[in-house]
C-alpha cells in the first residue's frame, strides 16, 4: 500500500479554495473545524462554510462555532470543493436535488465513505473531480487528535478525474492536500479505491467493530445472568472490561494484551476463544462479506430508509430496552468520571 505524509501534500491546494461541508454531525464538525484551522495556519484565502437542510436545528451549533450556514444548493454554487457529510441514506437525494444542477464546472465532489458512488446511487457529472477522504476514526476523535497536534489516519481515493478540472493527477493531489489539512498527514494517508474502502468499512463495522462486539458482549452478559449471577457482575465482566482489553490491543497488538493478562486468562483465551468464534462463525462472516459486495446489504438498508426505517427503529427500541442498559446506567452513575466524554446525550440531533 502507498502511504503518504505531510511532506507529500501541497497544502496550498486546499488553502486557496472555498469548501462547503454538507452536514455538521460526527464527521462534519471535525472536517469543517480542522480545515478552517489548517487554512488559517497556512494563511490561505479559502473559506469553509457549512451546508444544512432548511430549518435544521444543527444550524445554531455550526453558527455558534463561527461558520456561515447555507442551503445545500447555495453552498454547491459557491464552493470549489463540496464534501458530502450528510448521512449516507440521504446523499443520493441531496445530489439529485441540490448538487447536480448547482455545482461549479470542474469543481470537486468529495466523500468520507464510498458507499453512494460505489453502489451507483450517485452518478457524478463528468466534469467533476470525485474524491474520497475517509478518516479511520469517529469524528470526535478526528477533531480531538488534530487539536492535540496529532492526526487520525485517513484513506484517500479518486473515483474520477473530472474533465473540467486540472487533469494530470490533480484530483489525487487535491485529496492528499485535504487529508493533510485534516491532520492525517501527521500519521498516515493511505491510497485506496472507493470499492475497497466501502466494502472493508461495511464489513468491519458489521462483523467486528459494531455488530460483532456488541453481540458478543450481549451473549456473554445473558449467559451469566441466565445462570443466576448478578447483573452487576455480568456487566463488569462482559462490558466494562472490554475497554481495558481493547486498549491493550490498540497500544500493542493482541500479543501485548495477552502479555498483560494473567496466565490463567491467556490459557483460557487460546482454549475457549475458538469454541466461541468457530469455523461456522467465519463461514458466516464470508457470507456477510458476499452480501456486502453484491450490494444486498446496501439495498436492504436503503429500502428500510425509503419506508421510514421500521426495521431500524424496531431494533433500536428492542436493544435500548435490554437489561444491560439499565444496570449499566446504574453502575456508571457510581463512576461518573467515565461518562465525561459520552456523546449520546450531548450530540444527538
Ligand atoms: P451524522 O449522522 O453524525 O451527521 C449528519 C449531518 O448531516 C447532521 O448534521 C445532519 O443535520 C445533516 N443532514 C441530514 N440531512 C441533511 C440534508 N438533507 N442536507 C444537509 N445536511 C443534512 O453523520 P456521520 O456519522 O458524520 O456520517 C457522515 C458521513 O461520514 C457518512 O458518509 C459516513 O459513512 C461517513 N463516516 C462517518 C464516520 C463517523 O465517525 N461517524 C467515520 C467515517 C466516515
Ligand atoms: Mg450516527
Ligand atoms: Mg469505519
Ligand atoms: Mg462506516
Ligand atoms: Mg477478569
Ligand atoms: Mg500474562
UniProtKB/TrEMBL annotation:
Mg(2+) 1 binds at residues 201, 205. The lineage of its organism: Bacteria, Pseudomonadati, Pseudomonadota, Alphaproteobacteria, Sphingomonadales. Substrate binds at residue 262. The gene is ilvC. Its EC number is 1.1.1.86. GO terms for molecular function: isomerase activity; ketol-acid reductoisomerase activity; magnesium ion binding; NADP binding. Binds 2 magnesium ions per subunit. Pathway: Amino-acid biosynthesis; L-valine biosynthesis; L-valine from pyruvate: step 2/4; Amino-acid biosynthesis; L-isoleucine biosynthesis; L-isoleucine from 2-oxobutanoate: step 2/4. Belongs to the ketol-acid reductoisomerase family. Keywords: Amino-acid biosynthesis, Branched-chain amino acid biosynthesis, Isomerase, Magnesium, Metal-binding, NADP, Oxidoreductase. Its cofactor is Mg(2+). It catalyses: (2R,3R)-2,3-dihydroxy-3-methylpentanoate + NADP(+) = (S)-2-ethyl-2-hydroxy-3-oxobutanoate + NADPH + H(+); (2R)-2,3-dihydroxy-3-methylbutanoate + NADP(+) = (2S)-2-acetolactate + NADPH + H(+). This is Ketol-acid reductoisomerase (NADP(+)). The keyword Metal-binding applies. The active site is at 113. One of its GO terms (cellular component) is cytosol. Involved in the biosynthesis of branched-chain amino acids (BCAA). Catalyzes an alkyl-migration followed by a ketol-acid reduction of (S)-2-acetolactate (S2AL) to yield (R)-2,3-dihydroxy-isovalerate. In the isomerase reaction, S2AL is rearranged via a Mg-dependent methyl migration to produce 3-hydroxy-3-methyl-2-ketobutyrate (HMKB). In the reductase reaction, this 2-ketoacid undergoes a metal-dependent reduction by NADPH to yield (R)-2,3-dihydroxy-isovalerate. Pfam families: KARI_C, KARI_N. Gene3D superfamilies: 6.10.240.10, NAD(P)-binding Rossmann-like Domain. It is an enzyme of class 1 (oxidoreductase). One of its GO terms (biological process) is L-valine biosynthetic process. NADP(+) binds at residues 24-27, 53, 56, 58, 139. Mg(2+) 2 binds at residues 201, 237, 241.
Amino acid at each position: 500500500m502507498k502511504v503518504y505524509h505531510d511532506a507529500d501534500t501541497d497544502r496550498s491546494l486546499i488553502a486557496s479554495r472555498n469548501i462547503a461541508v454538507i452536514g455538521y454531525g460526527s464527521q462534519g464538525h471535525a472536517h469543517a473545524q480542522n480545515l478552517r484551522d489548517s487554512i488559517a495556519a497556512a494563511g490561505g484565502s479559502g473559506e469553509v462554510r457549512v451546508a444544512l437542510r432548511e430549518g435544521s436545528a444543527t444550524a445554531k451549533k455550526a453558527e455558534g462555532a463561527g461558520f456561515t450556514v447555507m442551503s445545500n444548493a447555495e453552498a454547491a454554487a459557491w464552493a470549489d470543493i463540496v464534501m458530502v457529510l450528510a448521512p449516507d441514506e440521504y446523499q443520493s437525494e441531496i445530489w439529485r436535488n441540490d448538487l447536480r444542477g448547482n455545482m461549479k464546472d470542474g469543481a470537486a465532489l468529495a466523500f468520507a465513505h464510498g458507499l453512494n458512488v460505489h453502489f451507483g446511487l450517485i452518478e457524478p457529472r463528468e466534469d467533476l473531480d470525485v474524491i474520497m477522504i475517509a478518516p479511520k476514526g469517529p469524528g470526535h476523535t478526528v477533531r480531538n487528535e488534530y487539536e492535540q497536534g496529532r492526526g487520525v489516519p485517513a484513506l484517500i481515493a479518486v473515483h474520477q478525474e473530472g474533465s473540467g478540472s486540472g487533469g494530470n493527477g490533480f484530483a489525487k493531489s487535491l485529496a492528499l492536500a485535504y487529508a493533510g489539512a485534516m491532520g492525517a498527514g501527521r500519521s498516515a494517508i493511505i491510497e485506496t479505491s472507493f470499492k475497497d474502502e466501502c466494502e472493508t468499512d461495511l464489513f468491519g463495522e458489521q462483523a467486528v467493530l459494531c455488530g460483532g462486539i456488541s453481540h458478543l458482549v450481549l451473549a456473554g452478559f445473558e449467559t451469566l445472568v441466565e445462570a443466576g449471577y448478578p447483573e452487576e457482575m455480568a456487566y463488569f465482566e462482559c462490558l466494562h472490561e472490554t475497554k481495558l482489553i481493547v486498549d491493550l490491543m490498540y497500544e500493542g497488538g493482541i500479543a501485548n494484551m495477552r502479555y498483560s493478562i494473567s496466565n490463567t486468562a491467556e490459557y483460557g483465551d487460546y482454549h475457549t476463544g475458538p469454541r466461541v468464534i468457530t469455523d461456522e462463525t467465519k463461514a458466516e462472516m464470508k457470507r456477510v462479506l458476499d452480501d456486502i459486495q453484491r450490494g444486498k446489504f446496501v439495498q436492504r438498508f436503503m429500502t428500510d430508509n425509503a419506508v421510514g426505517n421500521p426495521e431500524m427503529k424496531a431494533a433500536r427500541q428492542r436493544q435500548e430496552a435490554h437489561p444491560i442498559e439499565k444496570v449499566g446506567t446504574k453502575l456508571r452513575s457510581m463512576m461518573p468520571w467515565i461518562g465525561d466524554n459520552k456523546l449520546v446525550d450531548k450530540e444527538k440531533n
